[in-house]
Specification:
disordered C terminus; ABC transporter involved in vitamin B12 uptake, BtuC; transmembrane; 2 domains; two-stranded antiparallel ribbon; single chain; mainly alpha
Length: 681
């Protein structure tokens, strides 16, 4: 009985905290499950309500009511603006929405801090609620008990609205069959706007009412968003009661779990999130890209890519084999594939001719040269950096090269494998800490450090890969986010190895090769980083332009046909995941060399989002573009913000928004018309 008494108050705190998360997560679930918007700015909407409520609270009932009204209305208006902002992206998938809303979250967070300050604001509640109540022999804050009652009432009211009212029927119809809804005279666009406004209102009301529980501060939005994502994943998108149970469970882990198992509690939430998503993906609950059926398994004999990769054939990168009609079979070669073959130029479909084969080889060589030329130009431009910039700028350029490798790895996963990822900071962190620990132990040879970082990241990616490669679309984003957060949590908890939040520093500078002197200044460090980056990027480019890269591209574009022809798609994706992990691990090693320290802040969620943005800016299938995107991000965040101190997140947010709208296909997409015209010639 003594143990129960000791943990009674934390258990009730968990219920109150969980119900607060439920109100927020209900809005997030409504926006994603009904309006189809992956809103990474939802935590900022909560912060809007929390700051507004705290600012207007004066300890009276009138102040509480005014704060609730203004905070809810402000967040609802932000939801309407969010609907307008995401409308042009409705056909571009959840990745563009995630990047846009993350950018808006950075902008909103910076503006809130600018307006309300960086310190936590105290919240005053009415005197009747600012007291304690006896609950089963324990004293407990009255306000939290009242909040529990309000949240339960809100759950019941929300369920009634969605299931028993005309507005709820319209919301469900907008999610299930918008065309049918339009025939009733109700515009799906109006429902979409109303849903996002209601989701924002829920977040704002939760912020006002939850401010005495989770006070407004600089990190409030991120914390609330992450926990709400976990709740939505565990509870599902269409069940308010499922979301309620998941929210209470998360709240108990955050409060009671910390008191019962403090060493394990930080891992439980994201581990559960990753496990649930992985199980759902393995059961086939995750649709294939394009809304098609799940993976197709067949015993048919493997085809040699005669009809699967017409784009590769046009580029002359993969020779076509001739097969007879009996060898192909109607069941094995889809009609669309044969039509695509008929559309190919005659010279690309006649490898029997030596002249045609020579032409294909020549075209392949020309394509390889064209692909390598931008990389050569980029490396040459980077080589002159130490001669024209100061030491601080040279250091930033070295960091941009390291971040660029993470961006390239994210681009390979997103653009080539078709698996958008927010978790490439996990192998990045593994490589960084492996290098730091090796240097601290006396392993100072740069080549050895890079090899160790790449091997450690490859092993990590091989272990986590099976949980990633079975999922598709938004589920991949969530699984990789969970993997990244688990890795970051582990780094923060393993203080004896990683130094915890203080990080690792004070290790000796590396020696590029055996027998050489250590890197003594910024110029030498930059030269080493540039040389390593050039070698790694050249190797990546060769692999991506090889038949292996063609197979990977075919997996992304025609996965069902690849599976039907007997190709081991899962093996291709796993190898891509491991290769991308190696790139990120080498980037982590180079980052440690540039900074001479590493901490959890260097490998957190923000870095993952920046790497993905860099890949999107450059074009997810462009190696050089990803490097340029990383350079633009570092320039904006670390150099340009120096002229406007304290507004780095605002500038980054603007960059996110502009990139999503202006560069839908990235910098590489700007050259597509010219490339198409050249190919036609």
């Amino acid at each position: 009985m003594g143990v129960l008494d000791a943990h009674f108050v934390p258990a009730v705190d968990g219920v109150a905290y969980g119900l607060l998360l439920f109100v927020v997560a209900a809005g997030l679930s409504l926006a994603f499950g009904t309006a189809g918007v992956l809103n990474l700015a939802h935590g900022t909407l909560y912060a809007v309500g929390a700051y507004t409520g705290a600012e207007l609270s004066d300890g009276t009932w009138g102040g509480l009511a005014l704060g609730l009204a203004v905070g809810t209305a402000g967040s609802a208006a932000a939801g309407v603006l969010l609907s307008v902002a995401t409308a042009p992206l409705s056909r571009r998938g959840h990745l563009a929405q995630a990047l846009l809303t993350f950018g808006l979250a950075l902008i909103g967070g910076n503006l809130l801090i600018e307006f309300f300050g960086a310190d936590e604001i105290p919240v005053r509640v009415p005197e009747a609620l600012d007291a304690s109540t006896t609950l089963l022999g324990h004293r407990y804050p009255t306000y939290r008990l009242v909040f529990v009652v309000m949240a339960v009432v809100l759950a019941g009211l929300g369920t009634w609205v969605l299931t028993r009212t005309r507005a709820g029927a319209a919301v469900r119809a907008a999610a299930d069959d918008p065309q049918m809804l339009a025939t009733t005279g109700i515009g799906p666009r109006a429902v979409h706007t109303g849903v996002l406004a209601a989701a924002g209102a829920l977040a704002g009301a939760a912020g006002v009412l939850g401010a005495p529980i989770v006070g407004p501060g600089p990190g409030t939005a991120d914390t609330v968003l992450m926990l709400s994502l976990v709740v939505v994943v565990l509870g599902g998108l269409r069940s308010l009661w499922g979301t309620l149970l998941a929210a209470v469970a998360v709240g108990e882990v955050q409060t009671l779990g910390v008191s019962l198992a403090p060493d394990w509690a930080p891992y439980l939430l994201f581990a559960a999130m990753a496990a649930v998503l992985t199980v759902r993906a393995r059961r086939g609950a995750i649709p294939e890209p394009g809304g098609g059926p799940g993976p197709v398994r067949t015993r048919h004999r493997r085809l040699r890519l005669p009809a699967l990769l017409p784009q590769a054939l046009r580029a002359g990168r993969y020779p076509q084999r001739q097969t007879s009609q009996a060898q192909r079979g109607d069941a094995e070669v889809p009609r669309k594939g044969r039509g695509e073959l008929r559309d190919q130029p005659r010279r690309a479909r006649s490898p029997r001719s030596s002249r045609g084969g020579s032409l294909l080889a020549a075209l392949g060589e020309r394509a390889t040269v064209r692909a390598a030329a931008p990389l050569v130009v980029l490396i040459a431009a980077c080589a002159v950096v130490p001669y024209v910039l100061d030491e601080y700028s040279v250091t930033l350029a070295g960091y941009a090269l390291a971040l660029g490798l993470v961006a390239v790895s994210a681009g390979i996963m997103t653009g080539y494998a078709g698996l958008p990822t927010l978790g490439q900071t996990a192998p990045f962190a593994v490589g960084a800490y492996a290098t730091a620990l090796a240097a601290d132990a006396g392993w100072t040879t740069g080549v050895a450090q890079l090899a160790l970082a790449g091997a450690a990241a490859a092993l990590f990616s091989a272990v986590t890969g099976p949980a990633v490669i079975r999922a598709r679309g938004t589920t991949v984003l969530m699984i990789t986010l969970a993997v990244g957060e688990l890795t970051s949590t582990a780094i923060g908890q393993m203080k004896s190895v990683t130094g915890g939040t203080d990080g690792l520093a004070g290790f000796p500078a590396p020696v590029p090769l055996w027998g050489l002197e250590e890197l003594a200044d910024e110029t030498a460090v930059y030269g080493y980083v540039l040389a390593a980056t050039a070698v790694v990027l050249a190797a990546a480019l060769v692999l991506l332009r090889s038949p292996a890269g063609t197979l990977l591209t075919g997996t992304r574009g025609a996965e069902a046909r690849m599976r039907a022809s007997g190709h081991p798609v899962a093996r291709y994706l796993l190898l891509a995941h491991i290769g991308a992990g190696v790139l990120a691990g080498v980037g982590g090693s180079l980052m440690v060399t540039v900074q001479a320290y590493v901490s959890p802040a260097d490998v957190g969620f923000e870095i993952a989002a920046l790497a993905l943005l860099a890949a999107v800016i450059g074009g997810t299938t462009s190696v050089v573009g990803a490097m340029l995107g990383a350079g633009l991000i570092v320039f904006t965040r670390d150099w340009l913000s120096g002229a406007w101190p304290g507004h780095g997140p605002l500038l980054l947010g603007v960059l996110f928004v502009v990139a999503v709208y202006v560069l839908p296909r990235g910098l590489a997409g700007v050259r597509l018309p010219f490339a198409a015209r050249e190919e036609a010639v």
